[in-house]
Amino acid sequence: MKVKVIIAYIILCFSSISCSQAQKTEFSRKALEEKIITVDGNPIAFQDVLNQYKGKTIVIEIWASWCGDCIKAMPKIKELQNTNPEVTYLFFSLDKTIDKWKAGIEKHQINGDHYFIKNGMNGSFGKALDLDWIPRYIIIDKTGKIIVYRAIETDFELINTTLKSLK
Length: 167
Fold this sequence. Notes:
By secondary structure, the protein is α/β, with parallel strands linked by helices.
């Protein structure tokens, strides 16, 4: 009897973990309405950012200049950009200040369009995107559908394969 209880518990744990990491195909209304900051310091709704790139494949990277894993992954994202120049790359920073964010862009020579997320991972935008780790990558196809909702720095094979399939 104890074995059955343990097995049931294990199944419950796995199913709850897999549900929390479920693949989403669209952003929640809450996420789309959230305001982020442009490099010019202007607030803009996430939906308006996405609308600027309608009809394009998009890779979103959520990162921070203080994040060791983010910095370690920079060469891989630059390699992605070189092998997939037709893709739009958007970088959303979780830095603590706008000055540190801008210094990080310059220091690491990150090419793409940049946005700042106020209140970091635990703010309303971070919660709306289910942020639990950075760097975090999201891939959106030309129709606006989310193809990969949660990839991290160890998932570059998945990211590469996905981008090739979207060409």
